[in-house]
Amino acid sequence: MTKHSATLALDEAVQARRAAGQDVLHLGFGEAGLPVSAGLAEALADAHLRNGYGPVAGSARARAAAAGWFGRRGLATEPEQVLFAPGSKPLLFALLAAIGGDVVLPTPSWVSYAAQAALLGRRVVAVPVPAEAGGVPDPELLEPALCRARAAGARPAVLVLTVPDNPTGTVAPAARVAAVCAIAERHGLAVISDEIYAELSHHGTAPSPARYLPERTVITTGLSKSLALGGWRIGFARTPAGRWGQWLRRELTGIASEIWSSLAAPMQAVAAHALDDPPAVTAHIAAARRLHARVATATHARLLAAGADCRPPQAGFYLYPDLAPAREALRARGVTTGPELATALLDRHGVATLPGSAFGEPTTALTLRLATSLLYGSTPRQRHAALTAAEPEALPWIGPALDRLGAALADLTDHRAPTPQNAGATLG
Amino acid sequence: MTKHSATLALDEAVQARRAAGQDVLHLGFGEAGLPVSAGLAEALADAHLRNGYGPVAGSARARAAAAGWFGRRGLATEPEQVLFAPGSKPLLFALLAAIGGDVVLPTPSWVSYAAQAALLGRRVVAVPVPAEAGGVPDPELLEPALCRARAAGARPAVLVLTVPDNPTGTVAPAARVAAVCAIAERHGLAVISDEIYAELSHHGTAPSPARYLPERTVITTGLSKSLALGGWRIGFARTPAGRWGQWLRRELTGIASEIWSSLAAPMQAVAAHALDDPPAVTAHIAAARRLHARVATATHARLLAAGADCRPPQAGFYLYPDLAPAREALRARGVTTGPELATALLDRHGVATLPGSAFGEPTTALTLRLATSLLYGSTPRQRHAALTAAEPEALPWIGPALDRLGAALADLTDHRAPTPQNAGATLG
């Protein structure tokens, strides 16, 4: 049984609660929650005559735009290295299918990597992330984990990295990425680098594994996060130069041709426009980056105040607090696992989050993933105001929401004796 | 190694030959080759604010429109039975993954069914189609084939039917569909009914297997063929009512959530508009249906005149001639297999077709699949003229193309001794 993607399932559950009149603070879904950049609607409308199938990998125009986009970010790229798809999710699935073998994942990591591996009948070798940042396995733990996995009959062949990371909202330091890539090379692993948050690194760029293992790293990315276009489903991959890259490209194109044919031509036109880095798009992403950073940082302060451990946010709109310091107080309120913690927050306080177990952690971990991006507003006007506000974290629909989160956590983690309310009563 | 989809690969090869200055008559690709219907560009442009992810299965609006569309075609449908996807290809893949077990296919059948089964590690049980029409296995041969397959260790669990059919361009008679469904029921097979050509049946509707095996038939379809929107990638499925249908829906939604998330929201808006059957769309499809029927019928006459066997076209824009009556003449020209026949037509006459072996037939079969839809014109003006012409088969860019096809085949099948030209010389 393939379960509904945890993130998408929670989003649909929240929409249903809201439709039933409940006031839900939605921190459970990684939708960028911002308006469409100027220029993109026109690119979409202008493409309405493009109704033919076109090449599987994408049009020459779109592939050239993507190659230029990578080039301006320091990765020289030929158009034939690029392949478009309806989102980066199908690319990740097709890459796992193409490369073959078992899948090495950092823990925690994004919900769909392990689910895709399971769909393909592959084993997952899970390796915890280091303390300072997620998205890569702890280099100290990676090599022993590979040896143990091989001894247990697994055939680890591909390592998935997330730089910057979802769920932790951090950027792995270059030295960590380099160390992990060196181990991958020694062990003959290919690297899939999911870089869909790269444009949203709060303090500049992120260290792509493609710099450290250039001939064996394939990058997946898309416009869902940087341009808040999740609903337009625009993803693309950069396969490496060299012989392995050529082989991978043939395999990947073959699989793409049998599963999805091509990215919709009007969406390729949108991508071609956006990936040329026109000033309106660049400014839109810069404003989004600033907004994400400010609200995530304000949220981080609330989490620390409520007694959580939490890595400082460095990219995108995620935080990954650990409530382990409040384990005793939580136990007094009947909460002993991450899923129970997320359920208590939703049922008692109307705060929707995902437990760390959705990202591969044990259920005993008292971790949560919070996405702050759906706080930006419930109307286009509010979202636009958030994008341009000097202090978005103080806006009347954002500041009180952060206070509500802080109060909900404080209520559950308060060292004083539990009240009837926080011991188990549910919202009406 | 997953090969590039045969149809998409040939299309890209033809585009490359044309870019190199060759004059290729392209009969190898099932692109509908027509303009976009009035109203759809507006629906696409109006949807530019829909940038959120939305439900995996599709918006309530789009699902209601699809349910109404099926209802008006005699299949009462609730919105929750509908799931949208970026094309029907990913739906077929996800359905094979969800249902599990080995896959029973009519032979010949569309190129991607067997390729998808192979990607999923499933066996294919191939059963020839009856003489009068393709898309369903010959009922006389189906039951013995299932028994033989089981004896050989296969677990046949799902039967894929194509009604109307690609590659044969025919519509299986209702009695055949009913007989096949009865056998499927006896053997516990689920049925996937690919009905993407249903709107293009030349003489009315096509008998959906969902009428004969209602609780175990899932229908896949889309707008790529009826509305010539292959490049917009709009597909949808109708899962059956009842308990199995509910189970399938959960599985299918789970797999969809992990592979593609959802159909792009602007494309859902286009689908919602088109599936309401507005008059402009209905008229566009009626004109397309008439055009496909006239040109396919004119092509059929050329094929018979050149000595081929060929079922009369009944739907869409395909013909599936068999050159077996000319086997001796072809042998004298060095052509003994279907792939050699297709290669001779392309290299010696610049006529691009696909051999029957791409559709699961043995290479010894001298069958070809011809798609006539790319003859409608090389410019929007020509395609529009074809759509509205009283006698499109006589237009100056269509009639001579049919003559060229007839002459090419006649040259290869002529009973007189081969000339140096038709014995193997290639086009410059």
Automatic annotation (TrEMBL), chains A, B:
<protein>
    <recommendedName>
        <fullName>Aminotransferase</fullName>
        <ecNumber>2.6.1.-</ecNumber>
    </recommendedName>
</protein>
<dbReference type="InterPro" id="IPR015424">
    <property type="entry name" value="PyrdxlP-dep_Trfase"/>
</dbReference>
<dbReference type="InterPro" id="IPR004839">
    <property type="entry name" value="Aminotransferase_I/II_large"/>
</dbReference>
<keyword id="KW-0808">Transferase</keyword>
<dbReference type="GO" id="GO:0008483">
    <property type="term" value="F:transaminase activity"/>
</dbReference>
<dbReference type="InterPro" id="IPR015422">
    <property type="entry name" value="PyrdxlP-dep_Trfase_small"/>
</dbReference>
<dbReference type="InterPro" id="IPR015421">
    <property type="entry name" value="PyrdxlP-dep_Trfase_major"/>
</dbReference>
<dbReference type="InterPro" id="IPR050596">
    <property type="entry name" value="AspAT/PAT-like"/>
</dbReference>
<comment type="similarity">
    <text>Belongs to the class-I pyridoxal-phosphate-dependent aminotransferase family.</text>
</comment>
<dbReference type="Pfam" id="PF00155">
    <property type="entry name" value="Aminotran_1_2"/>
</dbReference>
<dbReference type="InterPro" id="IPR004838">
    <property type="entry name" value="NHTrfase_class1_PyrdxlP-BS"/>
</dbReference>
<feature type="domain" description="Aminotransferase class I/classII large">
    <location>
        <begin position="40"/>
        <end position="363"/>
    </location>
</feature>
<keyword id="KW-0663">Pyridoxal phosphate</keyword>
<keyword id="KW-0032">Aminotransferase</keyword>
